[in-house]
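Run log, item B.
One chain of 249 residues. Sequence copied directly from the ordering sheet:
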Amino acid sequence: MSVNAVNSVNNNGNNRKVKTGVAVTTVLGTGAMLMHIAKKQGFPLSAIKTAPIKDWALFRLYDKNNPMKKVMEFEEKEIIQLASASVFGGLAGGLAFDDKQYRKSKIRETVNQLLGNVLVPIACVGTISRLYKKNKETILSKIPQIKETGKFSKAFNKVLKGIPFSLATIIALGIGIFTGNKVSNFINEKVFKKQTDRKIKGTDFAPHVDDIGVALTLMADKSKFISIIQRTIPAFLCVPGYETGIHRD
């Protein structure tokens, strides 16, 4: 077997070890924060031992027959907490399982993920959300409506009223990710003295499934379907942590 072939086998083995280790520490970090948030929102952790899985905080869904039933909420603060736990969990795994030569690149990626993919985009979407709520009545008063004669016309009018905020959310998210990417590149260049031109990747949008959920919620009544979408948020927030831990440059 040639030297290159041996190195390839070793590298593949190391990559599997790193990826597995990072995946575990990312999930552990995100899971620990998820339990903390659940406890703060009034869901006792002891319920895990006694309650059926469908009644656990993460899996409890909206019930139209019992609209007052408590469900777990994921807003700006919770998203930032979960994303931070994910990223630092992934970083810990990367530092523990990967070669020392990649430590600085993982720390730089921590900045990219936290600032570029989480804090700046969420700040943009949050700002737009608050501005919308403040001016909601004025905005909706300018949206054309058709005469309501049945279920279809009522649903159509509701969709029309949901369009302004949905568009604003998508635009704010795009601007946030683009701006965050530029800011994180600038910080990496100034702090780490490394010329960086990090391109925006598809995985950069993973932490923002929650924002899509917000837009959908505005365009449709609360439902089990919308609730299911919102339950996927913690899983998608594991992506930035995993990306941080396995990053090499």
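Observations after the first pass:
- The chain has a mean pLDDT of 80.
- DSSP finds ten helices and no strands in the chain.
Flagged for discussion on Thursday.
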